[in-house]
Design brief:
Layout: H1 5-15, H2 19-41, H3 44-60, H4 71-96, H5 101-109, H6 113-120, H7 123-130, H8 135-146, H9 151-158, H10 162-183
Helix pairs in contact: 1-2, 2-3, 2-4, 3-4, 6-10, 8-10, 9-10
């Protein structure tokens, strides 16, 4: 891209805090970085997010830029690293099951017959019923209904896989519903 003295001059102005210089750098190099990421990600949203992060990081670290390298090359290096970090993070999320969050949200939002029964109880009665559960089920009910945590948040709090949390919560609800029915 054979950068000009103008680019170096604009960088110096940006380093001095000139807001217009930052805008000029963004306008000049945006399409190059975005195009690079669009080819890599084949996803417009990811390409745009990474490009935004690239410029945010570049502007934050502008004082570390070495003018013996082309500015575009420096931006592409930052951009490539952000993309690699994103891929690693997504891979980690897949391995730890955090990608189930979307499915979990749907499950979270659909009240079951047990949920309705639990919600119809007055608080004092409900607390008496909950005390009849084993401690680990009491904890699940407390986290879900009183602290209103999602499955993912409960899994995080208890350091347990999300599938374990789902099963325990299903079991706790079923047991609590049986106690409520017997108590009526």
């Amino acid at each position: 891209m054979g950068e000009t003295d103008d680019t170096q001059d604009t960088i110096q102005k940006a380093l001095a805090g000139n807001q217009r210089a930052f805008n000029t750098l963004l306008d000049t190099f945006w399409s190059g970085v975005y195009g690079f990421q669009l080819k890599r990600t084949e996803n417009e949203n990811d390409a745009e997010d990474i490009t935004i992060q690239t410029f945010a990081k570049a502007f934050d670290k502008l004082h570390t830029y070495n003018s013996s390298h082309e500015f575009m090359t420096w931006l592409i290096t930052i951009s490539r690293n952000i993309h690699i970090d994103l891929i690693r993070k997504r891979k980690r999320n897949l391995e730890t099951g955090e990608n189930q969050e979307a499915v979990v949200k749907v499950l979270d939002d659909a009240p079951s017959a047990e949920d309705r029964l639990i919600n119809e109880q007055n608080l004092a009665q409900l607390l008496q019923h909950i005390k009849k559960l084993k401690p680990r089920y009491q904890e699940m009910i407390n986290l879900r209904y009183f602290k209103e945590l999602s499955y993912a948040e409960i899994a995080n709090e208890l350091h347990e896989p999300i599938n374990n949390v789902k099963v325990k919560l299903l079991r706790a609800r079923k047991l609590l519903a049986e106690i409520i029915k017997d108590g009526k």
